[in-house]
Amino acid sequence: MDPHRPAKSGDNRERLPGTGQDSHAGAVQRCRIASNLNVPRLNQPTPAIVTQEAVRRLPRLALLLFCLAYVVPGFVGREPWKNADITAFGYMSEMARGASSWLAPSLLGQPPEFDALLPYWLGAWAIRFSPVWMPPDFAARIPFILLLVLTLLATWYGVYSLARSPRAQPVPFAFGGEASPTDYARAMADGGLLALVACLGLAQLSHETTPALAQVAFTSLAFYAIAALPRRPAVAALWLFAGMTGLALSGAPVMAMLFSAGGLVISVLDRDARSGASPSKRWVTAAILAAALLATMALAWRLDLWRWRVNSDGLLRDWRSFGRLLLWFTWPAWPLALWTLWRWRRQLGSRHVALPLWFVMVSVVTTWITPSSDRSLLLSLPAFATLAAFALPTLRRSVAALIDWFTLLFFSGCAVIIWVIWVSLQTGVPAKPAANVAKLAPGFEPSFSALAFVVALAATLAWAWLVKWRTGRHRAVIWKSLVLPAGGAALCWLLLMTLWLPVLDYARSYVPLVRGVMRQMDRPGCVEVFGLSRSQTAAFRYHGQMDLRPAGGEGSCPWLLAAAQLQPSMALALDMKAWQLVARVRRPADDSDSVLLYRKAAAQ
């Protein structure tokens, strides 16, 4: 029976509540009729019509294992990748060994691209206090693993808090049977978490040791705190100050201020608070947000964190490329978010819609006008996921089916491609994929890992079971439409980080470049550098254990490393008669990423 078609008189398929015999579609239809007996359709307070049957929570063990399978791959078993990952690690390593100031991080005299402090502190502390047997690059990732966990937790609790708002509740039924507020909020939070994991843009950037991950973690924490302030002001105030402080120390004090200011306005204008039994809570919430705003401003001014990073060409950027970035980066949350804005259009001023919408608007505008577009857009994903969650209780069956079929075809196809290329690398059959990899990563030698194969196979079998469960007959739950998108995203990420990890490590790390240079040197020791990027400097310092010094400074080293693209300008800055070219070494996966190795003429 179509739940959106009025029931015919005399339809005996509808059962009384509590008999356990009615289908979910019949229950929803009956509840629509019952709710409309008391509430006219045009004045219905909420578009959400949800039965108690539809808010069964996702099993906690399954949710925990799912999050574990998403968080761990990407942090374990790889080298630091170019460019931002190895660069950030370079600053952390310098601070850990005492070669850089903790209040002004530097790498061979170069300040970081972003004026962040806390992410570098966390990585440096982890390196300094890690056991001797632990590689420094993995030690630096441990705090960032916790930051990703914090992002997931804060998003879950943020959605939960907003779903407990009075104006976010589903329609009450005349004869009972509607979802209880607690169960409804928990099911919505499960859906919000699944929507966040499903976002394509989250995968890589959330597994790098960069300030971007710290920013999205503290943005999520601040989002949860503002959402929870009306219900739990004391606890939420602590998390709010922690989130705003962390966001300011992670290089985004202006974002922290905008989030606080928007939350302040929304809290003052919040209809729920204005109509509640205790209107003073609205002003307590506003006072807390105002204090957080002032504290953020004072902290940023005291530590000199204010920097104007607006790109001069930001307003003139190609809107089509920006649109493509926005579409794929936030998929599949953005179409659901648009559906939420349409279905909840009469509640746009309510905090469960207005608060995530404000966070999305601030992040998207910042992405438009700043150079690091993808990393700025990362901050919008928790809010996008929240808006996507509020679409779930209003989705039509046809829309949910479309999401399922598209997700099933897309991620199953991606998984098949990953497996086919891996099999080709291992066996040479089919030959074309292995030949393409050889062209893109010349010199790569495939290797087999039994552990990676077992984990990838288990994940693939779990995906097959999930598809069978989703397509089978089971009781309807509101988060079911996001199970396949989140599961597919986690599956493909895990397959990439197991089956493809060796070739990705070879193509995206600087290890092959550093080894190529070291093969040309009898004793690396002291090396002068000219024009190397921050990421190259960090790579030679860590992988090559080289004592790097700026070229042309005091002292003299027997070796000189220079960026290949700056060769024409070297004669203007250095006395090249004292140097003899030994080799031009390129990174195998990128011919443009090359360095020139010189030997001191007197040292021959």
Can you summarize this structure?
With 604 residues, the protein is mostly helical. The chain has four domains: 1-44, no CATH class; 45-71 and 136-306 and 316-394, no CATH class; 398-505, no CATH class; 511-603, no CATH class.
Give the topology.
Layout: H1 24-38, H2 60-71, H3 84-96, H4 118-128, H5 136-163, H6 181-198, H7 202-205, H8 211-228, H9 233-249, H10 253-269, H11 271-275, H12 280-302, H13 319-329, H14 333-343, H15 351-369, H16 373-377, H17 381-389, H18 397-427, H19 431-440, H20 450-471, H21 483-496, H22 501-508, H23 511-518, E1 526-530, H24 534-543, E2 547-550, E3 559-563, H25 567-573, E4 579-587, E5 590-600
Parallel strand pairs: 1-2, 1-3
Antiparallel strand pairs: 3-5, 4-5
Helix pairs in contact: 3-4, 3-24, 4-5, 5-6, 5-8, 5-17, 6-17, 6-21, 8-9, 8-10, 9-10, 9-12, 10-12, 10-15, 14-17, 15-17, 18-19, 18-21, 20-21
Summary tags:
604 residues; 5-stranded mixed beta sheet; 4 domains; disordered N terminus; mainly alpha; 57% helix; single chain
3D structure, described in words:
This protein is mainly alpha-helical. The chain has 4 domains: 1-44, no CATH class; 45-71 and 136-306 and 316-394, no CATH class; 398-505, no CATH class; 511-603, no CATH class. It has helices at 24-38, 60-71, 84-96, 118-128, 136-163, 181-198, 202-205, 211-228, 233-249, 253-269, 271-275, 280-302, 319-329, 333-343, 351-369, 373-377, 381-389, 397-427, 431-440, 450-471, 483-496, 501-508, 511-518, 534-543, 567-573; strands at 526-530, 547-550, 559-563, 579-587, 590-600. It has a 5-stranded mixed sheet with strand order 2-1-3-5-4, covered by helices on one side. Helix 4 (118-128) packs across helix 5. The radius of gyration is 27 Å and the shape is globular.
